[in-house]
């Protein structure tokens, strides 16, 4: 009876020793089993998670993480486990991620009916190269906001660029910035072409008096005052207003700037009074000729001899001709006086 407790104690001690000997940790990076006493994976050197108390009643999800450059592949046993990376839900296994930055990341796999799996993995810093060409040549190139110099004809080579999404901006005076976003996943080199479009400036034209018609390079642009958005260049200008001398000049439009032109128009010499006087004289002369013609026509009707009748008939026709000419001239001059504003 006294030996039985001793046997029980010996068996319990043996069970504890066996548990310590056969306990193992699974590497979250490569999936290799390690001794429970190991702190680092014997294969890849990854830090091993601390052993947790066994819970044999509920199985645990087995997780496997494979890292190849910036590509992370996550699988589990059983599959269909919900994946969270750095506390953010990313989908279910099997899963492939390509948007993670270099560095250490935490992972957790959860599936109904299983204990969750948690661990860490590391993405080592990977680098590639990008060759940037610009159209036109010579634009300044920026990588993630930092200047890298001007792009020569053969392109600008950017080395040791970290993997991931990179923003490339090309900038040249007189042009709009060209922006390209590159997802760098390989060593490359990757070719990127930035085509810059012309920037624009503003032409502001004012005239005294306003309301003058504007021609820009012989093309109608409207009436003053006027604001036009144009590409940077030198433009020929012509302002026209009835009753004023034409104004001719030019303007140099610069990128992202306002070029202001102020033109003074000079009035032409007035001709309205002579036109009015001429119209009065013409109409008055027509009226006098009409009266004289009627008088001669009366004499023609009262003529007693053939010779008098012929003479008055010719006189009547002459006065009618004078009347028609004078009235036509007077009406034309009156119309010109009415239409012309100078």
Automatic annotation (TrEMBL):
Where does the signal peptide begin and end? Answer: 1-23
| Pfam families, sorted | PEGA
Which intervals hold domain PEGA? 71-123, 127-186, 203-261
Keyword Signal belongs to the record: yes
Alphabetically ordered keywords of this record: Signal
Quote the PANTHER family the UniProt record gives: S-LAYER-LIKE PROTEIN
Put simply, this protein is called PEGA domain-containing protein
Q: Which organism is it from?
A: candidate division WOR-3 bacterium
């Amino acid at each position: 009876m006294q030996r039985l407790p001793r046997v029980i104690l010996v068996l319990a001690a043996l069970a504890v020793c066996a548990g310590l000997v056969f306990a193992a940790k699974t590497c979250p990076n490569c999936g290799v089993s390690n001794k429970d006493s190991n702190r680092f994976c014997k294969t890849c050197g990854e830090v091993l998670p601390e052993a947790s108390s066994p819970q044999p009643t509920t199985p645990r999800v087995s997780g496997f993480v494979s890292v190849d450059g910036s590509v992370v592949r996550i699988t589990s046993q059983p599959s269909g486990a919900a994946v969270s990376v750095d506390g953010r839900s990313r989908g279910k296994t099997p899963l492939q991620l390509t948007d993670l930055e270099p560095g250490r990341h935490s992972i957790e796999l959860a599936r109904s009916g299983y204990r969750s799996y948690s661990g860490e993995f590391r993405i080592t810093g990977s680098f590639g190269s990008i060759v940037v060409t610009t159209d036109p040549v010579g634009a300044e190139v920026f990588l993630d906001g930092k200047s890298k110099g001007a792009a020569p004809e053969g392109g600008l080579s950017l080395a040791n660029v970290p993997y991931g999404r990179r923003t490339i901006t090309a900038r040249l005076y007189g042009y709009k910035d060209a922006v390209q976003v590159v997802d760098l996943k390989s060593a490359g080199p990757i070719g990127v072409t930035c085509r810059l479009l012309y920037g624009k400036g503003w032409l502001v034209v004012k005239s005294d008096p306003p309301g003058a018609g504007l021609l820009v390079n012989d093309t109608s642009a409207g009436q003053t005052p006027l604001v036009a958005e144009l590409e940077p260049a030198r433009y020929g200008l012509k302002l026209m207003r009835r009753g004023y001398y034409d104004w001719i000049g030019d303007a140099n439009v610069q990128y992202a700037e306002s070029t202001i032109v102020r033109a003074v128009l000079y009035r032409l010499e007035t001709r309205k009074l002579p036109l009015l006087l001429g119209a009065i004289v013409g109409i008055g002369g027509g009226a006098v000729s009409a009266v004289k013609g009627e008088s001669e026509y009366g004499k023609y009707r009262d003529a007693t001899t053939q010779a008098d009748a012929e003479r008055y008939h010719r006189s009547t026709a002459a006065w009618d001709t004078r009347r028609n000419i004078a009235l036509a001239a007077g009406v034309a001059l009156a119309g010109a006086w009415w239409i012309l504003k100078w």
